[in-house]
Amino acid sequence: MRVVPIAAESLGTRSMATFVETRDVRILIDPGVALGPSRYRLPPHRLELARLAEHWDAIKARAEEAEVLCVTHYHYDHHNPEEPEVYRDREVLLKHPAEKINRSQKKRARDFLKLLEGIPASVEYADGREFAFGETVVRFSQPVCHGADSRLGYVTEVSIRDGESCLVHTSDVEGPVTRDQTGFILEEDPDVLYLDGPMTYMLGYRFSRGSLQEAISNLEEIMEKTRVGTVITDHHLLRDLAWRERLGPVFEAAEKRGVKICTAAEFLGQENELLEARRRELYASDDALGAGDP
Ligand SMILES: [Zn+2]
Ligand SMILES: [Zn+2]
């Protein structure tokens, strides 16, 4: 199985878009990418806008290669209602648009389904279901909270298993914080876990220290009880420059067990480029350059 993160915070945008290729099928999870509208009270820097365009082009190219497109929930960093043509003739597996969903995503889902009318080869609501493509089985969790509670709605985690290995892509769990988010990972027993790590850039106000502790102990349990060899952690966690320190105990446990923890960029063999987390520096270096002009 080949796992290719396409866009992510460690690559400079907000996304968990991932291309997966098995012997049987090519699958694109969450074909969307976005930017933080305001960070340090600053709008996206031009480098972020340029990266956003690059990443969207890369997602579209992968969508052309894929037979199956999955959408785990209806936030705009996970799907893009502006270009429904991406779904043309594809098999589309969607988070249920009306059950276990909050009000804002329910509206977005309804609008999105209208836009999709007549475009994909098929549309299925995937929550809690599994789909076979040859020997590859794609399994979706029951809806789990988007983070520690359901204020931001629900997401489906995705497991892809071929004859050789298993990937779990957690979507926006911001942790994992809850028992059911963690339970799906334990059940699937993945070799590779692509995790939305804890939302520590909002630690102490939108994300509690208690939730961070839960995430740490859940990750320790996952490393203890599953075969996982690689944990890719990105998305909410990589909006925090101190992400490594936040997960200190997890890195220690991983080292003892021989588990590799990396970002999406590192998984691809690239340098981390946390453009949003460095937005203040990006603007400051523009100012420094400007000051040198005649
Ligand atoms: Zn989300
Ligand atoms: Zn997201």
Brief write-up:
The protein is α/β, with parallel strands linked by helices. It has helices at residues 46-65, 103-116, 179-188, 209-225, 243-246, 248-257, 264-267, 279-291; strands at 2-5, 18-21, 26-29, 68-71, 91-94, 122-125, 130-133, 136-140, 144-145, 154-155, 158-161, 166-169, 192-196, 230-234, 260-262. The chain has one domain (2-267): Ribonuclease Z/Hydroxyacylglutathione hydrolase-like (Metallo-beta-lactamase, Chain A, 4-Layer Sandwich).
> Superfamily at the CATH H level?
Ribonuclease Z/Hydroxyacylglutathione hydrolase-like
Largest sheet, spatial ordering of strands: 7-8-11-12-13-14-15
Number of domains: 1
SSE-based structural type: alpha/beta
Distance between the termini: 55 Å
Radius of gyration (Å): 19 Å
Shape: globular
What percent of residues adopt helix (DSSP H or I)?
25-40%
Q: Helix segment count?
A: 8
CATH architecture: 4-Layer Sandwich
Predict the CATH topology: Metallo-beta-lactamase, Chain A
Oligomer: single chain
CATH class bucket? Alpha Beta
Q: What letter string, H or E per element, gives the SSE order?
A: EEEHEEHEEEEEEEHEHEHHEHH
Low-pLDDT windows of residues = none
The biggest beta sheet reads: 7 strands, mixed
Structure characterization notes:
There is one protein chain. The relative contact order is 0.15. The longest helix has 20 residues. This protein starts with a strand and ends with a helix. Strands 7-8-11-12-13-14-15 form a 7-stranded mixed sheet. Strands 1-2-3-4-5-6 form a 6-stranded mixed sheet. It has 294 residues and is an alpha/beta fold. It has 8 helices and 15 strands. The chain is globular, with a radius of gyration of 19 Å. Strand 11 and strand 12 form a beta hairpin. The model has no long low-confidence stretch (mean pLDDT 97). Bound molecules: zinc ion (2 copies). The site of one zinc ion has 4 residues, from loops. One zinc ion (ZN) binds next to loops.
